[in-house]
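Q: What structure does this chain adopt?
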Amino acid sequence: MLEGLYARAREHPWYRDRFLSDGSLPVLSKAELYSLLQGRERDPLFALDTYWSPSGGSGATAPIYFPTAVAENLAQRSLFASWLLREGILGPSTVALSLFSSRTMYRSSEIFIDYVQRCGGTVLPAGYQARDADVCDLHQRFGPNMLMGSPGRLVQLAHAFALPFERVLYASEFLTAGAQALLSSRLGVSLWASVMGSAEGGVWGFSRFQDDLDVFWAPRSLVLLEIADADEEGFGRVIVSNLVRRRHPLLRYDSGDRGRLLPGFCDEVVGLQLAGRHGRSFQFSAQYYELSEFDSVVGEAAAFQFVLRFEERDWLTLRLVGGDEERALAELRRIVRYNPLANRVEVELVAPGDLQRVAHSGKILPIVDLR
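A:
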């Protein structure tokens, strides 16, 4: 299968000049792919039978629209939905209230409506922008047993209303321990599932209700996963090759995730344990920090956001939804080696709506750099 995709790729403008003399294909970075796509929405190559999907992005740049053949997109959805049904994540008994976004061609709402219906379930597409009061009314009318959406949006709902949901299916963002605790206490959630993917590669990984939140399973018939630059524990850059998309292949693409491969729970899947994403770091007072270094600070919060700015000196503001402000400030200052003569460090307790988000996807930006 991969050999056939490589043969197609040698004729495709994205790849034909990338093959090395030994026939191998170097890793394709996000920046390289985006440079190939920028401003080409009207290219005749994409004129007919094209499904456009915008990258959710980090908010730092405008979204990039990725083209896929319509039939291939539907084939991938069908294959992936069969796994959601097989593993009991969705099914005929599912009544899912969806808070996923559909703004500015962002596809998450459409995608999850499709998955629920392909699995024989019922979906209530309230949408990301629905008023919390209207969501409450839909819950009272229809009695859904599953809530779907990005963690940031689900946290917003939980702050507004205490509604009973047994199950959550989330995507687009990481679920923090604080968000999980809040959704459990306010919404009664006890079962968690998730999916992962991207505009470029489509949705290709799922986490079941019985899995740890950082473990996903990828069907071998859908994607080939590689780990590049692995450390001593096996964690490295997750490289994705989509085995379904042939018209516009996605081969050896650096997904932006970090993880390590695990044995599958069956021969048909491979496991992936996530460790985070590239770009989840920042520089403050001439020192680089990974967001994972602040787990002890943000772990109790339902959501968080680091804001960096420069006003005569470096400022670091941590916005927290929930948590202990005094304890968080002390721990934050310890980690960044706070020096009042050189920088400023502060913590603000805020409401979910106060956090800056990506305009078209609604994702919470973990880092906002105003410098």
